[in-house]
Specification:
heterodimer; A: about 70% helix; B: mainly alpha; two-stranded antiparallel ribbon; globular
Chain lengths: ~675, ~500
């Protein structure tokens, strides 16, 4: 057997290594002479994990369509009566397949680069050991999620990445805004998680199938082996139930991947360190929702209704989030809205049945979006501000960063030959082929197409504001400088991926990785006359967006929307995030909390008040009874006997009489 | 065969007496007793043969002992003990909580001999309830728990301790009477040959369904007040707010479990037909407790009161898992009782430490404690995350199984407890935001992190929450070594 395939059996080492890193840095990080040492330990372990991850991915590329499942029984309940006469088995294991290999490549490579970059970015922070411990735990959870071979295990890691994200958003926890953003992220994704859980219940009970080795009869969780998806053929249940389960999975994915209407937490998650935004809130964790949809569509399958719902959510979010990025003054939040929008493209592609096309965009996006965040991080590190309107002229003192941001921007805008062009255009082209048979997809496809223009516009507006012009608009800012080599190297590597990553689709090995399984159409992208025309349209839109951005913001220009402009209300609406955040806050802080306050009042004064009412009544009665308290023992004995007699009479005479009339003994 | 269960009871009894007598060194005696108890439970675990199934239609127990006690005509009372997987899991919980509580209250200075003695006595009563297999013996242990807890609240408690202690006593005592009437009626009507569990179990099916239903209701009320169930829950927040930390720990960790244990052992297994008739009542009460406990928690300003109401929510989920009446549900119920025992104990210890570190438990008036008291903050985090059902911590496998069982029987009604999970997450996460994070607020100059004994006491529980959260099957295999495995469902 090939050495690379041998690695697949040992895939569990990757999460395990990161857990070791978590424990080491978490326990001993603060006791080291220099705080950076803990960081370097994490970088080293992360490097080993990356080598393993890349090795596994190469193995999959050399042997396309290999599945290596390593599992053991985690819990076995033999012969339980009820729905599972053959018993319940829950397994834990790792499944290395093309999907997980692709994700592993993304997570370990971007993860390692961010760990390295953070040495520079966080070097003056006293919380550095905590940061590296949490980031290590996150990487353990994320690689565990990617390698999960069943839905329950997937959920366990899914929640763990969520809680790591919670802690890292709240990393600067003394800041009230950071603490609040962490809470918001936890609770909004929790709504999605609860729906996801219901989806798991449904799959578990109604679409259970027998695994290849037999014996796990009631194991609805395990992903099938082989190339065919396991639809619930011959099992109990109706397609309505399958539809509902699919919608619940969509709910979970929407929470994690910040899709409308659960998108509100992601822009606020920018309170965390920028490196965290790059890794967790751009490249990996938020993509887990897309990965969940892809895994479900490949291994279980969605009904047509589900597909339409997913396309609708994804397509709408793509456009909706892009509009908010257009006006925002904060460099990180612009990129955050962009992430929501790009995730929308992926969700839409998976929904339309092009799971692998969606994952291809996930792949390219992870690199160029991490690049944009890390470049923004360099700027924030140098200047200490995130406000685009204070920056300016940074392309001269920060040549590497400026170039990196521009490359990331071109990739995002979909300008060939940069990475984003190939994947995004593949989504639009593949979807276009479906429009004939699914006319309801039309509006969402058009929204996604329009978003191309907005995307190019907002990202170059940000570039011109930060890097264009002659100098910073706020003279109080410190002089900008480039970060140390640990910060520049990741930028260079990611820039390389942003330029060439898309072209990998024409490399046979990588293609093999994506070609596998359902929804593989669209890989490699075809370039017939229609497709060339479509690409022409989208590139034109992208170029137009850049042009408009240059016209309004280039060369240090500042475009101010006139007060009398009819667009002012629109601008206010966008700056206020469509008032959705305010509405959610109202529901949480006013409605739900109000109900809770009301319930508390009822509890104290109505329920307990009734009790006190009885108490007073008994008090009055006992006053009269007190006269019976003679202090004579024989009297008390008489009371006791009378009481006992009462109980016996009740039990032996009165109750049987009553029961006889009710049809009892 | 060595009477190991009597030996456990004797250990605790002797330990209690010695503790009362040993004055200033009481805590050492209590600690030694806890370790002996732990060792005995470990021995029980090691030699536990599994579950022997039924013989003559009656479930078999391990380590059984039976001696004639009162034999007067029809009054055939025996001293009968025995365990199955359910009892054993709860004994493990008792041993862990007793050790943790003794260690946590190492610094108790107010009448330490009486304090540690009463702690052990409470545990003795609970162990008795878990191992007794005779109606009268069960009831005696059941009542025996109330007395030490009454004094723990009434003497070591907060400013309104007298009120809270009496309220606790009256409430649970009234419920006990109803339960006793139910148990006695069960013995009389079924013409059981003795008060033994086995003969009651064998005789109960001869009762008509209506009788069974009435008996089940009276037992449900009796056990339910201990849960507690809405609307008979108002003794709980008062008792917790006034109780000293160790008292709260045993109250939430063990006493509430007596209700769940009693309901499963004496009502569900014995009267399945009656259970079937009144099942809807249980569903309504369970849903009410789940929703009410969680929503009211959200409005609490007192950390301890919040945790108390969250107990009502969690015990509501236990009740729901019992109410679905399937083998899976009962498994979930016992697992969740164990989980809640560990997690609520950790949270009550946290509230106690918050109170004496910052002089208040008001969530809104203390903030940003993490840099000053990192260990305490970590304990609060672990407890809160476990309580809100985060995977890898003990509550998750239990709640997951409970909700899975609920989906099995009630389909989309499961959305209600699922939705409440968001509210539960909300009050914990919001509390953490206000107390642990943000700028420092309301922290006295003298505040310092936990003393070593409190760290160890809470550390035991935190470790248990993590170990059993990662490896829940350690418990699951034990719990199903009981009639749960073959429970036919109602």
């Amino acid at each position: 057997m090939d050495a690379f395939l041998l690695l697949d059996q040992w895939a569990f080492l990757i999460p395990l290594l990161m857990v070791v890193s978590f424990a080491l840095v978490g326990l001993f990080g603060t006791r080291l002479r220099a705080l950076e040492w803990g960081g370097w330990a994490a970088v080293g372990i992360g490097g080993i994990a990356m080598v393993l991850g890349v090795g596994i991915a190469i193995g999959e590329m050399l042997h396309p369509g290999t599945y290596v499942n390593a599992q053991y029984t985690w819990l076995h309940l033999a012969g339980t009566p009820g729905p599972f006469p053959e018993g319940i088995s829950l397994v834990a294991g790792t499944l290395v397949d093309p999907l997980s290999a692709l994700m592993l490549l993304v997570v370990t490579v971007v993860g390692f680069l961010v760990l390295l970059y953070s040495i520079g970015y966080m070097h003056h922070d006293r919380g550095l050991p905590r940061y590296y411990a949490e980031l290590s735990l996150f990487l353990a959870a994320m690689t565990g999620l990617v390698l999960s071979n069943n839905l329950l295990e997937f959920f366990l890691f899914w929640e763990l990445v969520g809680v790591c994200s919670y802690f890292l958003i709240g990393f600067y926890y003394e800041k009230p805004s950071a603490a609040s953003a962490a809470k918001e992220a936890f609770l909004v994704t929790r709504i999605g998680d609860v729906l996801f859980l219901l989806g798991i219940f449904i799959y578990f009970f109604h679409f259970a199938t027998t695994g290849p080795s037999g014996g796990w009869a009631a194991n609805g969780f395990v992903f099938a082996h082989g190339t065919s998806p396991f639809l619930p053929t011959g099992s109990v249940g109706s397609s309505t139930l399958l539809t509902i389960a699919g919608l619940m999975i969509l709910g979970g994915a929407a929470g994690k991947s910040a899709q409308f209407p659960l998108h509100v937490w992601l822009p606020d998650a920018m309170e965390g360190p920028t490196t965290v935004s790059a890794l967790i809130h751009a490249a990996t964790m938020v993509a887990a929702g897309v990965y969940l949809l892809a895994v479900t569509s490949v291994f279980i399958g969605f009904t047509a209704t589900d597909q339409l719902a997913i396309v609708a959510v994804g397509g709408f979010t793509t456009f909706f989030a892009a509009t908010m990025a257009v006006v925002h003054p904060d460099i990180k939040r612009v990129i955050a809205y962009s992430t929501i929008s790009q995730l929308g493209y992926m969700v839409m592609a998976v929904g339309a049945g092009f799971a692998m096309v969606g994952l291809f965009h996930l792949f390219t996006h992870a690199f160029f979006k991490a690049l944009l965040f890390l470049a923004a991080g360099s700027v924030i590190h140098a200047l200490g501000t995130q406000d685009l309107f204070k920056m300016g002229g940074l392309r001269k003192p920060m040549r590497v960063t400026g170039t990196a941001f521009a490359i990331g921007g071109l990739a995002l805008a979909g300008i060939p030959p940069f990475a984003g062009f190939w994947s995004k255009d593949d989504i639009l082209g593949s979807m276009y082929g479906e429009l004939g048979s699914h006319p309801l997809y039309w509006p969402f496809w058009i929204l996604a197409l329009l978003a191309v223009f907005l995307t190019a516009y907002y990202i170059f507006r940000a570039w011109f504001l930060a890097f264009g012009g002659n100098g910073p608009r706020d003279p109080t800012l410190p002089p900008a400088h480039e970060g140390s080599w640990v910060m520049q190297v990741p930028l260079v590597i990611l820039s390389g991926m942003a330029v060439f990553g898309g072209l990998l689709i024409f490399v046979p090995g990588f293609q093999g990785l994506l070609l596998y399984g359902a929804g593989a159409s669209g890989i490699p992208p075809v370039y017939g006359p229609t497709d060339l025309a479509l690409s022409g349209i989208s590139v034109t839109l992208g170029a137009a967006g850049i042009g408009v951005a240059y016209w309004l913001w280039g060369n240090g220009r500042i475009f101010v929307l006139p007060e009398s402009s009819p667009l002012q209300p629109v601008r206010r609406l966008l700056l206020n995030r469509y008032y959705l955040k305010a509405a959610y806050d109202w529901v949480g802080a006013r409605a739900v909390y109000g109900i809770a306050r009301g319930a508390d009042f009822v509890d104290r004064y109505v329920i307990d008040g009734t009790v006190h009412g009885f108490e007073r009544a008994f008090g009055a009665a006992s006053d009269r009874l007190r006269r019976g308290q003679t202090g004579v023992v024989s009297d008390y004995a008489a009371y006791v006997i009378a009481g006992l007699l009462g109980v016996f009479v009740l039990l032996l005479l009165v109750a049987p009489y009553l029961l006889a009339h009710l049809g009892g003994t | 065969m060595f009477p190991i269960l009597s030996a456990v009871l004797a250990t605790l009894l002797v330990g209690t007496v010695l503790t009362f007598l040993s004055g200033k060194s009481a805590r050492w005696v209590a600690l030694a007793t806890s370790f002996v108890f732990l060792a005995e439970v470990a021995y029980l675990l090691l030699q536990f043969p599994g579950w022997a199934g039924f013989a003559g239609g009656v479930p078999q127990f391990a380590d059984g002992e039976s001696y004639a006690w009162i034999h007067l005509g029809w009054l055939q009372v025996n001293y009968t003990l025995g365990i199955d997987g359910i009892s054993l899991v709860l004994l493990v919980l008792t041993a862990i909580l007793q050790l943790a509580t003794v260690v946590y209250s190492w610094g108790e200075t107010k009448k330490p001999a009486a304090w540690f003695g009463l702690l052990l006595l409470t545990c003795l009563g609970c162990v008795g309830v878990f191992v007794a297999l005779d109606v009268l013996l069960f009831f005696l242990f059941w009542e025996a728990v109330l007395v030490p807890m009454f004094f723990i609240i009434g003497y070591w408690g907060g400013p309104r301790r007298r009120y809270a202690a009496i309220k606790f006593f009256v409430y649970t005592h009234v419920a006990s009477i109803v339960m006793l009437v139910g148990l006695l009626a069960l013995v009389f009507y079924s013409h059981a040959t003795s008060f033994d569990y086995a003969s009651v179990y064998a005789a109960a099916p001869s009762l008509s369904v209506v009788t069974q239903a009435f008996l089940f209701l009276s037992l449900f009320f009796g056990f339910g007040v201990k849960f507690p169930i809405v609307p008979f829950h108002t003794w709980l927040p008062d008792a917790h707010v006034e109780a000293p930390t160790g008292g709260s720990v045993l109250l939430a960790g063990l006493l509430l479990k007596l209700g769940g244990y009693g309901l499963i052992r004496w009502a569900v297994f014995v009267l399945p037909n009656g259970f079937h008739e009144v099942q809807p009542v249980l569903f309504v009460v369970a849903f009410a407790s789940i929703a009410w406990g969680s929503v009211v928690s959200l409005a609490q300003r007192d950390l301890k009161r919040m945790v108390a109401f969250s107990s009502i929510n969690h015990m509501g989920i236990v009740l729901l898992a019992i109410a679905v009446g399937s083998s899976l549900g009962l498994l979930a119920a016992v697992l969740l009782m164990f989980a809640h025992g560990i997690v609520s104990a950790l949270l009550f210890m946290s509230s106690g430490s918050v109170h004496h570190t910052f002089g208040t438990r008001d969530i809104a008036s203390v903030g940003g404690i993490t840099p000053r008291t990192p260990v305490l903050a970590t304990m609060i985090m672990i407890g809160s995350l476990a309580s809100l059902g985060l995977p890898w911590l003990i509550s998750f496998p239990a709640e997951f199984t409970a909700l899975l069982a609920t989906w099995d029987r009630l389909a989309y009604w499961v959305l209600l407890p699922l939705g409440i999970l968001v509210v539960t997450a909300a009050f914990y996460i919001w509390m953490m935001q206000r107390m642990l994070f943000g700028p420092e607020k309301g922290i006295p100059e003298s505040a310092h992190d936990l003393p070593a004994y409190e760290t160890v006491g809470m550390g035991i529980l935190a470790a248990a929450a993590i170990v059993f959260g990662v490896l829940p099957f350690l418990l699951v295999n034990l719990i199903t070594a009981s009639p749960i495995r073959v429970f036919p469902g109602v």
